[in-house]
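Feature request, filed as a ticket because there's no other form

It would be nice if the structure record came with a short human-readable summary line next to the tokens. Right now we just get the raw output. Example of a typical job, pasted below so the devs can see what we mean:
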Amino acid sequence: MDLSGVTRDVVVPVRVDPAGRTGPTPDQARGPHWRRTSRGFYVPADVDPTTVEQRIVEAAVALPDTWGGVTGWAALAWAGAVWFDGSPWGGGTVRPVTLAVGGNRTIRSQSGFATSEERLLPGDLVVVDGLRVTRPVRSVCFEMRYARSVVAAVTTLDMACFNDVVSLDEVAEYAAALSGWTGIPRYREAAALSDENAWSPREVEMRDVWSLAAPRVRPLCNRPVFDTAGGFLATPDLIDPVAGVVGEYDSALHLPGPQWSRDLDRTDLFRSHGLEPVSMVSSDLLDPTHFVRRLQSAYERAAEIPASRRRWTLEMPPWWRDTTTVEARRSLDEAARARLLAHRAA
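Raw output as currently delivered:
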């Protein structure tokens, strides 16, 4: 694929040029100053091969000039979804870029990229900053259908929604035409569990454990909580809107120090308004047994809180600007996005 129109800060691979004008000569290509990216393409040896966008262009250059596109996690990353870098959710070996080539059998997987020969329609392809990629809804569906677990599929959809590159409704509309495709049952199961307002993969994992341990009411993600006078209290990672149990994921940033002190104040704020907090730490992801016990205890304590002490609500006051859905966030101008969304971690 001709990538001369790419506008990102990347180095586009070039072919060997016997004259040495547009690329390395054959002798230079075999030397230490050039690195082969795929069959027939090279970049200077000092180009960093580990950055996400460089990995993407090094794969995309192998596409035919008129057909196919980058898909899956790489297409989402190129579209601006910041949580996608090829690392599997939960850890593991970094995955290659996948090229959607339809029925084109002239391109085979190589080191650095894989290929997908699934049906590809012209409407599935768009050009973003000079690079041809599959539309976000197709890219998300591809990732979800081939996810290694339902939780991984949920995380994919939630994190694509984080940057508003898709909405749940948009993906559902696209997936409705994919009956019989590989992995569609996994997509459907995951889509039913997804939320447009998760702020990190860890929150998704926490929500999954919570939902299995306390399936009565599905916890909501990052919903602002107010006092009964309409004043803002806090935005917990998760909240059971019926029981008043709030969940927080405490990463290494929450270890003893200034943040820990703020966390203690936050816990006191929740309890003083009739909410019962519970925390998850990184070790709970490997073995959630202790978190589940803490969660069950939190539900027991919450059940004992009299109605007179429940001085909180999820009803947004008129002055509050809702940002809990993709539609609401897309309606923001750049200044409002910077002001209202900058606090989200990514």
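Something like this underneath would help us a lot:
The two ends are 32 Å apart (CA to CA).
The first strand starts at residue 34 and ends at 38.
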